[in-house]
Specification:
Shape: globular
Order of helices and strands: EHEEHEEEHEEEHHE
Number of helices: 5
Radius of gyration: 19 Å
Oligomer: single chain
Strand content: 25-35%
Structural class: alpha+beta
Largest sheet: 10 strands, mixed
CATH topology of the largest domain: Alpha-Beta Plaits
CATH superfamily of the largest domain: Pseudouridine synthase I, catalytic domain, C-terminal subdomain
CATH architecture of the largest domain: 2-Layer Sandwich
Number of domains: 2
Helix content: 10-25%
């Protein structure tokens, strides 16, 4: 059975998240239904990350095994045609046949996310459900400095959901940068690591917002990390500001 890698983009608004659920629409279900319409096969796809309800993706990656070999462009275009007919807010950016050893989840070397905050007095209209809204301006430099206290290998119990199913709260965070975005008032928080805990980035974003508002300092963030207690975390940021940006994999030519 040939295996295909699918690079996926989606607007997570109105979906229950990536993972298939019995009673609520999901990204996984939308793609699997489109594949059924395309080639008549009932499949189960695996994604690189299980995004929560309302979270978006610019570069989610999944893999699927099909019974027949199809041209890469046919797989992409046919799945997209069925997604469009169903009015799903999901698109396959690219599809290509890969070795059977490729696994969208377990072959991943690093995952990249970005959290977007827009600071302005007026409510968001075009960007509604696509960014966190802050009425007050935030101190980007202070947020970035505080974020560096979280980079490295730590016990991130404070910054993970109580429903997190990971066996250990210890993770290595490679990057957590806070910077101005391309548009006025836009702040982007870029996070990179091999893997993340449930709600980890949203917990970072909510905590760093307190720093940006002048309510917390870098020392407060360090103390929260060291407390290893969910009660020490700042408010968890809303899901609509979070985007699964990209995934790194080994170079197949190596």
């Amino acid at each position: 059975m040939p295996r295909y890698r699918l690079d996926v983009e989606y607007d997570g608004t109105g979906y229950a998240g990536w993972q298939r659920q019995d009673e609520h629409p999901s990204i996984q279900q939308a793609i699997e239904t489109a594949i059924l319409g395309f080639c008549g096969e009932t499949v189960s796809i695996r994604g690189a990350g299980r995004t929560d309800a309302g979270v978006h993706a610019l570069g989610q990656v999944a893999h699927v095994d099909l019974e027949k070999t199809w041209p890469d462009d046919t797989v992409r275009d046919a799945i997209n045609a069925h997604l469009q007919m169903a009015r799903e807010r999901v698109a396959i950016i690219a599809a290509r046949q890969v070795d059977k050893e490729f696994d969208a989840r377990f072959s991943a070397l690093k995952r990249h996310y970005v959290y977007r905050i827009i600071c302005r007095r007026a409510p968001l209209v075009i960007e509604k459900n696509r960014a966190m809204w802050s009425v007050k301006p935030l101190d980007i430099a202070a947020m970035h400095d505080a974020a560096q206290a979280l980079v490295g290998r730590h016990d991130f119990t404070t910054f993970r959901s109580v429903q997190c199913q990971a066996n250990s709260p210890v993770r290595s965070l490679d990057r957590l940068d806070v910077m101005a975005g391309a548009q006025d008032g836009l702040i982007e928080i870029h996070a990179s690591a091999r893997s993340f805990l449930h709600n980890q980035i949203r917990s970072f974003a909510g905590t760093l917002r307190l720093v940006g508002e002048g309510k917390w300092t870098t020392a407060d963030v360090e103390a929260a990390l060291g407390a290893r207690s969910r009660k020490a975390c700042g408010p968890v940021a809303a899901p609509e500001g979070l985007y699964f940006r990209a995934v790194d994999y080994p170079d197949p030519s190596d």
